[in-house]
Amino acid sequence: MIFDTHAHYDDGQFDEDRAELLASMAENGVGIIVNVSASYASCERVTDMVRDYPFLYAAVGVHPDEVGDLNEESFARMKALFTREKVVAVGEIGLDYYWEKESHEIQKKWFIRQLELAGELGLPVVIHSREAAADTMEIMKRYAKGLKGVIHCYSYSREMAKEYVKMGFYIGVGGVVTFKNARKLKETVEEIPLASIVLETDCPYLAPVPYRGKRNHSAYIRYVAEEVARLKGLSCEEVIRQTEKNAKELYGFSAE
Ligand SMILES: [Zn+2]
Fold it and tell me: Helix (H, G, I), strand (E, B), or coil: what is residue 156?
């Protein structure tokens, strides 16, 4: 079954047909979805949502664009959400120097605090990093030692991907890999072992070809799996099977 390691079903773009769409996942071959919070407000929403859907799990954390909402008080409230059921990771957290909504110093401070929280809780991390390759690597080397995690929507060089793989992290691959101009990501997928790749949507964003630009959802991961299979000379089923195994290992479902 398809394991979507990164989705945002609490997003307003799903308000009209969320229940219907999620109800259709199993028949479309989707087994498990991790719904990842981005803003501080969504942390509570994702932990509420998992109660309604047995195949849905939550990651709680604040995205670098949104860390302006964090202070000691809100951080403590967020931390309390980890006592709820089906919270399997800290994320998404990281650095975003593309939008630069918050200063680099503030972003780094809360990135590190949330990595330390993951260490404390013994949970994996979901990393968002955009145009911040060097600083992200530096912080990961210092503060993410011994943690499991995924570099979601990976967008850097294949050399750096290999370094993350060596450190034991997974590389998150989504719709972008199907884009014609995604040469760098295609090369990365060719080069790193399938055992280090997990599939993701980042839905409602980043729908794969032939739905590029439209609203994305987890069943479209099939197109991502097909492209990964083509690049690696494997069958689509083999890619789905192995990446599901990887995702279960990442989020600690292996014993089930
Ligand atoms: Zn995301």
Answer: coil
For 19, list phi and psi in degrees, rounded to 5.
-65, -45
Spacing, Cα 38 to ligand 1 middle (Å): 7
Tens digits of per-residue pLDDT, 32-58? 999 999 999 999 999 999 999 999 999
Domain total in the chain: 1
Distance 94 CA to ligand 1 centre (A): 11
Centre of ligand 1 from the C-alpha of residue 124, in Å: 15
Ligand 1 centroid from CA 126, angstroms? 9
Confidence band for 5, pLDDT divided at 50, 70 and 90: very high
**Residue that is written with structure tokens 């799903």 in the block:** 14
CA 187 to ligand 1 center in whole angstroms = 22
DSSP 171-237: EEE-GGGGSTT-HHHHHHHHHS-GGGEEE---BTS-PPTTSTTS---GGGHHHHHHHHHHHHT--HH
Q: Provide the CATH number for the domain around residue 215.
A: 3.20.20.140
Q: Is 122 within a domain?
A: yes
Residue where the block lists tokens 């993410």: 144
Q: Tell me, yes or no, whether 256 lies in a domain.
A: no
Task: Assess whether the previous peptide bond of 92 is cis (omega < 30° from 0).
Answer: yes
- Residue 84's domain spans which residues? 2-251
Ligand 1 geometric centre to CA of 205 (Å): 8
